[in-house]
Write a structure and sequence with these properties.
This protein starts with a strand and ends in a 5-residue tail after the last helix. It has a three-stranded antiparallel sheet, covered by helices on one side. It is built from 13 helices and five strands. The chain folds into two domains: 2-73, 2-Layer Sandwich (Alpha-Beta Plaits); 87-288, Rhomboid-like fold (Up-down Bundle). The chain is elongated and about 75 Å long. Helix 9 crosses helix 10 (209-225). It has 289 residues and is mainly α. Strand 2 and strand 3 form a beta hairpin.
Length: 289
């Protein structure tokens, strides 16, 4: 991160921060030594930041007009091209998820699902036959530890997961960088899938929900540990996801027609995200000292 500006006591950084996020500028507002500071991730965006700061200092209300003019002048194609460029791994993950949903017909093509499930399986005479993790590992089919995250079994399931991965994941990718973000997602997905399989003993599960909970845990914890991190997950949103996690352990989702929920994957995903957040904080806190 690169230092840009120290706010005066009378200046409220909230409006400027909102404008920076609107213009896809990855940044952090840090409270240090009784004042706020602005730090940005990419120095190539400094000119745009300085332009917005000039507008903000003259009249903060003009920033909203700037939002509107940008949205009016920019084409839909240009806006999405910019978003994809800033979060390429997030976009790739979602495209893969949609592709798998299409070729498996949301789980209807059971033979194709078998290529992505944590264990290959066979259904004979109404019985399902599959392997344990030791056999999967010995066969060298390592991709299976990750690919269940790409499987989805309903429209509601995939819409919920992809929207949250894009909303939270794209922001985290801009802050962490694509490589670290990718490694974190793989770790969360693999741990969620392995524990779900070991505890349920059944290979037909899937979804990005474990990753979603992992991203939520990571994004929620970092601002608590470090003032340099922006708040991505509000207290209210965190409460909502914890309540939904608890509801998943009841019969209520099945009563709504949502089917059985991979609760272990959700819980392990959340715990993994929290642990990774703590590890990341430990590994990077010396940079702020």
């Amino acid at each position: 991160m690169n230092f840009v500006y120290q706010f005066k006591e009378t200046e409220d950084p909230k409006g400027l921060s909102e404008a920076l996020w609107h213009h896809k500028v990855a940044h952090q507002i840090v409270f240090k030594d009784d004042h706020y500071e602005l730090w940005i991730l990419d120095l190539s965006q400094l000119a745009a930041v300085e332009q917005l700061m000039t507008i903000w200092k003259d009249d903060p209300t003009l920033l909203q007009q700037t939002h509107n003019s940008v949205e009016t002048d920019s084409t839909y194609k240009e806006q999405w091209a910019s978003k994809l460029k800033q979060a390429p791994v997030t976009a790739t993950l979602l495209l893969l998820t949609l592709l798998v949903a299409f070729i498996t017909q949301l789980g209807s093509e059971i033979k194709i699902v078998g290529y992505f499930s944590i264990s290959p399986f066979d259904i004979r005479n109404g019985h399902i036959y599959f392997y344990d993790l030791t056999e999967v590992f010995s066969k060298g089919e390592y991709w299976r530890f990750f690919t269940p995250a790409l499987l989805h079994f309903s429209v509601l399931h995939i819409v919920f997961n992809t929207l949250w991965v894009w909303e939270i994941g794209a922001k985290l990718e801009r802050l962490l960088g694509s490589l670290l973000w990718c490694v974190g997602v793989v770790i969360i997905a693999v741990l969620s899938n392995i524990f779900q399989y070991q505890i349920s003993g059944y290979p037909l599960f899937g979804g990005l929900s474990g990753v979603v909970y992992g991203l939520i845990g990571f994004a929620w914890l970092l601002p608590i540990l470090s003032n340099y991190w922006p708040t991505i997950i509000s207290k209210q949103l965190m409460i909502f996801f914890i309540i939904w996690l608890a509801i998943g352990y009841t019969p209520f989702p099945e009563m709504l027609g949502l089917g059985s929920i991979a609760n272990t994957a959700h819980t392990i995903g959340l715990m993994s995200g929290l642990v990774l957040g703590f590890i990341y904080w430990l590994a990077t806190k010396h940079r702020r000292s």
